[in-house]
Amino acid sequence: MGFSGEENAFIEWYPRGYGVGFKVKARLLEIQTRYQRLELYETEGFGKLLVLDGTVQLVERGEESYHEPLVHPVMLAHPNPERVLIIGGGDGGTLREVLKHGTVEKAVMVEIDDAVIDVSRRYLKIDRGAFEDPRAEVIVGDGVEYLRNSGEKFDVIIIDSTDPVGPAKMLFSEGFYRDVYNALNEKGLMVTQAGSVYLFTDELLGAYREMSRVFDRIYYFSFPVIGYASPWSFLVGVKGDVDFTRVDLSRAEGLELKYYDPERHETLFQMPRYVRELLEAFPSL
Ligand code: AG3
């Protein structure tokens, strides 16, 4: 981690000695927040790099390869997403993509670590004004408590958390998914990132199992994300009568997409064969 390994490189080590790295020109910040260790680097070729507890969160040039597939498939599959909740996502990238949708009346973001918001606003600016949007409400707090206590209902809930290992682990549990389900309107969609397909396969299967106990239907897809050990996995939970396999193409116009292709939505549902077979082996599904 950090400057280990090759000099002037940041490398994130995954299990089994697999690494993803960037050549860096400088370390701009290294702080211990109330919740985690935050590092910010200037890379040679991808702009700034944000790291939390040694794990790559995003690079400025390429962050859309994560935020687009996280946000737009669920937003375009929901018939009319007006109220959206984001848990995590302190950098503002997810909020930015959500607010591109003209149907949205309110987007609430609940991020536990205000230092992530502050550093992102000051150095990254990938929110591109989203924090100032009158439709946005930014709450610094615990997303789990918010879901339980706010009584608010949403059409789409997006979990933009750290990995299904470590402090965010409970965001991948049946109890949490039940709170998410209850906070969804009669028709609703939830999406979560679920880690590296190859290196966190067990965690992905675990999250899928927990979700399958709660949602009416669940879907999986993977997407290559710049800076993560790709392919990266995403899980979608459906409440009520919503078809996640179809999207409203008329609402995709003007989204300025670079990675996710709504015209090829049906190709989204890719998983390496052995992982698909493991997922499909769950008896309840
Ligand atoms: N949140 C998901 C980070 C997961 C990355 N995991 C890793 N590198 N091991 C990203 C925050 C962007 N809004």
Explain the overall architecture.
There is one protein chain. This protein is of the alpha/beta class. The chain has 2 domains: 2-59, Roll (Spermidine Synthase, Chain: A, domain 2); 64-280, Rossmann fold, CATH 3.40.50.150. Helices cover 24% and strands 31% of the residues. It is built from 7 helices and 12 strands. It has helices spanning 64-77, 93-99, 114-124, 143-149, 174-182, 201-212, 273-280, and strands at residues 9-13, 19-32, 37-43, 48-52, 55-59, 83-88, 106-111, 136-140, 154-160, 184-196, 217-223, 232-239. The chain has a 7-stranded mixed beta sheet with strand order 8-7-6-9-10-12-11. Strand 3 (37-43) and strand 4 (48-52) form a beta hairpin. Helix 1 packs parallel to helix 2 and helix 5 (174-182) packs across helix 6. The longest helix has 14 residues, at 64-77. The N and C termini lie far apart (39 Å). The protein binds 1-{4-[(3-aminopropyl)amino]butyl}guanidine. Residues 12, 55-58, 66, 89, 91, 93-94, 160, 162-163, 193, 228 line the site of 1-{4-[(3-aminopropyl)amino]butyl}guanidine. 1-{4-[(3-aminopropyl)amino]butyl}guanidine is lined by residues 12, 55-58, 66, 89, 91, 93-94, 160, 162-163, 193, 228.
Estimate the mean pLDDT confidence. 95
- Bound ligands: 1-{4-[(3-aminopropyl)amino]butyl}guanidine
CATH topology of the largest domain: Rossmann fold
Order of helices and strands: EEEEEHEHEHEHEHEHEEH
Apparent shape:
globular
